[in-house]
Amino acid sequence: MSRIVHAVTGPNRASRPSRVTDLSNASIRLEKQLGQGYFSTAYLASGPWGKPVVIKVPNKGRATFETFAKEAEVLAKFDNSRRLPHLVAQILPSQSSVVPDGALVMEVVQGVPLKAMGGISEQRAIDLTVNFLEGDLSSLHQRHLVHRDIAPQNVLIDGQKMKLVDFGSADWVEKDTGRVSHGRGRQLGSPPYTDPEQRVNEQIDQSVDLYATAGLLFKMLTGQSPDPNVVAKLPEGRLKTVIDQFRATDASLRPSLSQAAAAVRSLNPNDLKAARTLRFATLYGHESEALQSLGENVGAHRNWANEVGLTTAANELRRKVDSVFFQPNASNRKTALATYYADFCLRANELGLNLGEYRNSPHHADHLNWAMSVPLAEVRNEVFARLEVIEKWAAP
Q1: Which of 69, 273, 327, 379 yields a CA-CA distance of 20 to 30 A from 120?
Q2: What is the pLDDT of residue 13?
Q3: How far apart, in Å, are the Cα atoms of 108 and each of 43, 133, 283, 379?
Q4: From edge to edge, which strands make up the β-sheet containing 155-158?
Q5: Structural domains in the chain?
Q6: Tens-place pLDDT, residues 184-217
């Protein structure tokens, strides 16, 4: 018989699901894939629940029904205010070809994955981080839980809030020690957001979540993942001090969540300028790939810009624009430069780059239509004018 199981709250590992609802004749439809992690794949689904739900299906050999039962306990403990239905659905192989290995059924949480977001303005990045430290993360830690896998794919942006999802790696901590209650930490997480303790399989505490949150702040401010070699390129100043404190190798040196929120809230626009050169390098990576196909991806171009610095990268971008402007085929170069101009405007807007008085429409067609309606030289000049504004904005 197929069944859906309601999990019991609380950290007692001896707890067992309390109710079973017969789903033998239920029709379950996986509408679309939402994301895939190491242990499971999440789908938007419909069925006998009266509304769309999220169903997590275990990846072969990497998660079990017991794994999902534990995650349901964590959800039940974490956030009743979100009205997450703490349900674990076990569909037996003989009854369902849709989810033959069991599944975790959850309410749809509104928001856009941070991983799928374009650029975020500096102030919004600060507001999101403070709200997260004082909101979801504080709520989690107050319930003696640790998430262990805070990363862009596991955070949803909803207005000015970041919401945690995917509690498959979450664990309980002991009240007296503040550490994971069953020995040494398992090697989980999403590099480069993973703390040193989990990378070498040491025992962990809740500060691993703060380490990862610092990576989210860095990602939002620069557009780049918090690889240690990239983080090291931040100029000395208050922003780098905050990031380094949150990511201290010695966990005992990391601040509390309230101290961390106060530190982030105190960052001012001058402090945040330290991230702008790296953000420009992100823009350069996208633009170089669009202008010149050399078998290198965005990351390769971006890394080059990280190394050579703002001025050299900006001049190289101008040279690449001119390589399009002066190409022999006049018809092709008009379309190519107009399309590039529209892409450039949109990417700059998405990255939260300050274009001052220049056109800031969020619609690609607006920029493309303008570029196709004016002389080619005017499009080139407009690209260079925007680039100059961005270069001045990003300058240390």
Answers
A1: 379
A2: 35
A3: 10, 22, 33, 44
A4: 112-113, 155-158, 161-164
A5: 3-107 (3.30.200.20), 112-267 (1.10.510.10), 276-394 (no CATH)
A6: 445 566 889 999 888 777 889 999 999 999 999 9
